[in-house]
């Protein structure tokens, strides 16, 4: 059975930061795509600020699904799992918000950067900080997750509950994973292109919209020449348009209630004829009489 906590216990926060990767999951309010993304650099990109707040630095990538979804509805789930001999899965259910890297002098970005020292000299392609307000933490067994090659035997003969102690049993898994340098090297190389605008141009090409057409990275949209207010209003209008079924149902229900009220005698309807003179201003009526 899973165990639920209203916040992140300290030992589980420590355990989370020891894992080689974590996953983010998000989805639009209306749309076909549910996004799941793996994230590495856990110890340097993710931070637990308090029992109910965490944040991670989101690097530039070929899509902007999480950013788009968080902008639209704020829903995001973070998942960690053990690859060592002590099985465990932990999920953080969160409300998220986006702090974008607009430029080096942007106030919100600088505050988060200074709070953690994120990616100094490591990754130059950071595009936003995803701030997570955690409202529920879930821990479950994780018996179905495979064990890494150097993570101990586990599995056969393992009794239920064995190795499930909170925050324990995953030190050996660190030896089975190594940090991939590709993202860091790509960021440095791309940043030098197009007279120093390589990263910005890449974001304009790939980060303006989600797969379902939701507004994406605001900096990319602005660089693309989009008027942000118009784009946001258009997205809200489309979202309201998806609710036509509920609006129609509400209208039918209102008509039914009115009909039943009349039928049961609870509502009385009276019709009153109105002369044209009662609807028009007196000077218009007088002018009309003169002309006629």
Task: Give an overview in words.
By secondary structure, the chain is an alpha+beta fold. Helix content is 36%, strand content 20%. It has eleven helices and eight strands. It has helices at residues 10-18, 42-45, 65-73, 107-116, 182-191, 198-206, 218-223, 228-241, 244-263, 276-279, 282-291; strands at residues 3-5, 22-26, 35-39, 46-50, 53-59, 75-81, 89-100, 126-140. Strands 1, 2, 3, 4, 5, 6, 7 and 8 form an eight-stranded antiparallel beta sheet that branches. A hairpin with a 2-residue loop joins strand 4 (46-50) and strand 5. The protein starts with a strand and ends with a helix.
Beginning-to-end CA distance, first to last residue: 87 Å
N-to-C order of helices and strands? EHEEHEEHEEHEHHHHHHH
What's the gyration radius in Å?
28 Å
What fraction of the residues are assigned to beta strands by DSSP?
A: 15-25%
State the helix count: 11
Main β sheet profile: 8 strands, antiparallel
Helix content: 25-40%
Write the SSE topology.
Blueprint: E1 3-5, H1 10-18, E2 22-26, E3 35-39, H2 42-45, E4 46-50, E5 53-59, H3 65-73, E6 75-81, E7 89-100, H4 107-116, E8 126-140, H5 182-191, H6 198-206, H7 218-223, H8 228-241, H9 244-263, H10 276-279, H11 282-291
Antiparallel strand pairs: 1-8, 2-3, 2-6, 4-5, 5-8, 6-7, 7-8
Summed up, what is this model?
This protein is α+β, with helices and mostly antiparallel strands and 292 residues long. The protein has helices at residues 10-18, 42-45, 65-73, 107-116, 182-191, 198-206, 218-223, 228-241, 244-263, 276-279, 282-291; strands at 3-5, 22-26, 35-39, 46-50, 53-59, 75-81, 89-100, 126-140.
């Amino acid at each position: 059975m899973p165990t639920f906590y209203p916040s992140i216990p300290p030992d589980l926060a420590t355990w989370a930061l020891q894992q080689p990767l974590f996953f983010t999951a998000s989805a639009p309010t209306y749309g076909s795509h549910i996004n799941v993304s793996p994230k590495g650099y856990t110890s340097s990109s993710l931070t637990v600020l308090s029992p109910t707040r965490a944040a991670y630095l989101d690097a530039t990538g070929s899509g902007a699904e999480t950013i788009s979804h968080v902008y639209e509805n704020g829903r995001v789930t973070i998942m960690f799992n053990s690859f060592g001999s002590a099985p465990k899965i932990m999920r953080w259910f969160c409300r998220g918000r986006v702090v974008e890297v607009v430029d080096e002098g942007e106030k919100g970005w600088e505050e988060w950067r200074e709070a953690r020292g994120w990616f100094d000299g490591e990754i130059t392609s950071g595009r936003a900080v995803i701030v997570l307000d955690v409202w529920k933490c879930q821990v479950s067994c994780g018996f179905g997750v495979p064990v890494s090659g150097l993570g101990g035997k586990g599995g056969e003969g393992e009794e239920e509950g064995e190795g499930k102690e909170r925050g324990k049993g995953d030190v050996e898994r660190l030896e089975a994973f190594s940090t991939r340098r590709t993202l860091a090297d790509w960021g440095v190389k791309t940043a030098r292109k197009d007279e120093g605008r390589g990263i910005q141009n890449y974001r304009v090409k790939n980060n303006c919209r989600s797969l379902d057409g939701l507004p994406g990275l605001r900096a990319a949209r602005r660089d693309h020449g989009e008027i942000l207010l118009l784009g946001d209003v258009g997205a809200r209008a489309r979202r309201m348009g998806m609710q036509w079924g509920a609006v129609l149902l509400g209208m039918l229900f209102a008509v039914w209630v009115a009909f039943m009220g009349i039928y049961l005698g609870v509502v009385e309807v009276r019709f009153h004829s109105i002369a044209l003179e009662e609807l028009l201003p007196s000077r218009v009526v007088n002018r009309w009489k003169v002309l006629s």
